[in-house]
Specification:
- By secondary structure, the protein is an alpha/beta fold.
- It is built from eight helices and twelve strands.
- Helix 6 packs across helix 8.
- The longest helix is centred in the middle third of the chain and has 15 residues.
- The two termini are about 30 Å apart.
Length: about 220
């Protein structure tokens, strides 16, 4: 089961697509414009985005391009009535992974969604094991030996991200944009607060530590390869 964000201002189509995706065992978050989508992204872990282009306010092209500029790599499928080659070209150029023209064949949509998830391998990344430490995304639980800690969702998501890419530096800005949203009013010190809480909870962890790159951000370093 994947967590999918669906953005379309056509309420009936939005509900129909959501119903079909849920029937195929996906969890669906529904938004009718980009502002609603950003609010959902700020509080939920999203694994794939389906977005219309022509919506009130920010359109799907700008939204997709903004996510790619922030280095968000989750798959994006555009669904739209804009069918010219130039429209498709623009969609792919701003960062879409796939493009479907309305009216949508719902069976084909499901196939394309599943193919994008397979390609990105996101559907398998719900559990991480590093040494004796196990992170279970479905329960927000971290187990080390006989000790189990259930984390608040935001803390878990940050730790899950860092542990997914050991030794890779994540700037405060990237973490802020991914877990609080591009339009969030919070400042980057919020990230520091969550990192400090994680560091305190896992200060004695035998498998990893969270390292600060001064003035830049954070990364996880394995204690044993």
């Amino acid at each position: 089961m994947a967590k999918i964000l669906l953005i379309d201002d056509d309420v009936n189509l939005n509900n129909l697509i959501a119903k079909v995706l849920k029937k195929n065992n996906h969890e669906v978050y529904q938004a009718h414009n980009v502002n609603e989508a950003l609010d959902l992204m700020a509080t939920n872990y999203i694994e794939l985005i389906i977005t219309d282009i022509m919506m009130p306010g920010v359109d799907g092209y700008v939204f997709t391009e903004s996510l790619r500029k922030e280095k968000m790599e989750l798959p994006i499928l555009i669904i739209t009535a804009k069918e010219s080659f130039k429209d498709k070209e623009k969609g792919f150029n701003v960062g879409a992974d796939d493009y479907m023209i309305k009216p949508i064949n719902l069976d084909e949509l499901v196939l394309r969604v599943n193919a994008l998830l397979r390609r990105s391998k996101i559907h398998t990344e719900r559990r991480i094991e590093i040494g004796s430490t196990i992170l279970d995304y479905d329960s927000f639980e971290v187990t080390t030996g006989n000790e189990k800690i259930i984390l608040p969702q935001k803390e878990f998501n940050i730790l899950f991200k860092l542990l997914s890419y050991p030794n890779q530096l994540f700037t405060r800005t990237k973490l802020m944009n991914e877990f609080w949203g591009i339009m969030s009013d919070s400042d980057e010190r919020t990230v520091d607060v969550h990192i400090n809480r994680l560091r305190e909870k896992f200060k004695n962890n035998p498998d990893f530590e969270i390292v600060t790159a001064r003035g830049l951000g954070y990364k996880v370093v394995k204690k044993h390869e």
